[in-house]
Amino acid sequence: MTHRGPLPDLMVEPIVRAALLEDLGRGGDLTTDLLIPEDHAARAALVARQAGTVAGIGVAALAFRLLDARVTCHPAVADGTAVDADTEVLRVEGPARAILSAERVALNLLGRLSGIATATAGLVAAVAGTRARVACTRKTTPGLRALEKYAVRAGGGANHRLGLDDAVLIKDNHVALGGGVTATLARVRAGVGHMTKVQVEVDTLAQLDAALTADPDAILFDNMPPDMLAEGVRRVAGRAVTEASGGITPTTIGAIAATGVDLISVGWLTHSAASLDVGLDIVDEGGR
């Protein structure tokens, strides 16, 4: 999945609402409510403090709007845009209390998603000129999967499975408990519908040869060195989508891509990518 359109508010709102409720607790924003008059207005800019690829502008805007529908949001860039340090990415204006109370949730989500998009964009650039596409995995933050996978797409990457229910992936533990590669593939093929893709993970070329006899839709090469991976791609010979996974870093991904593999899946894009530094600056104290 490579669609880069924004997620609908219907999907995003429960996530943002839960984050706001977590932050506001049982008593609301004590500091802001004590210091800022209820009728005070302000304008603020969300600024990327460091260079990167932006993702989550709409998510951040929703945080402000959920606290007060009178807050208006004016994006300065679109998701997927590479920006320099100190670039304004979103302008908000309206009730000052809502702006201050939603600030941390908006920045947390925007920084997190932009960090994922930035890391993805770096890997995408590293494999430019090859056939390989960079993909994420299910190693996502609980509750944030839809947003994090969206951020990967904003960074130019692709999504692997969104969940357990949209494709079959026979992994090593399935093979161990299911009687081997050939047996597990046969049982899966007998039980899935014609629209369901079937992928099998292999650790050795012998497993690959066994898997190919059952015509899987995709092969996942797990932790194979580049020379073995290249031989695996040669043996598949276009009969299935090929994917490499395990131990992928910015310094190793080029050699992996050079083997001719179709996909390179990277778990750390969503479980360990550093957040982009984003801040909120009051640019105009609107007053009453």
Automatic annotation (TrEMBL):
Mind telling me which residue stretches traverse the membrane in this protein? Answer: none
| Annotated EC | 2.4.2.19
- Protein's pathway: Cofactor biosynthesis; NAD(+) biosynthesis; nicotinate D-ribonucleotide from quinolinate: step 1/1
UniProt xrefs under Pfam families: QRPTase_C, QRPTase_N
Quinolinate phosphoribosyl transferase N-terminal domain ranges (all copies) = 29-114
Q: What span is annotated as the signal peptide, if there is one? A: none
Gene Ontology biological-process entries: NAD+ biosynthetic process; quinolinate catabolic process
Describe the location of the Quinolinate phosphoribosyl transferase C-terminal domain by residue ranges.
Answer: 116-281
Keywords assigned by UniProt, alphabetized: Glycosyltransferase, Pyridine nucleotide biosynthesis, Transferase
- What does the entry list under GO cellular component? cytoplasm
The protein's annotated catalytic reaction(s) are:
nicotinate beta-D-ribonucleotide + CO2 + diphosphate = quinolinate + 5-phospho-alpha-D-ribose 1-diphosphate + 2 H(+)
What is this protein for, i.e. what is its function? Involved in the catabolism of quinolinic acid (QA).
**Subunit structure of this entry?**
Hexamer formed by 3 homodimers.
Q: What is this protein called?
A: Probable nicotinate-nucleotide pyrophosphorylase [carboxylating]
- Species the sequence originates in: Roseospira visakhapatnamensis
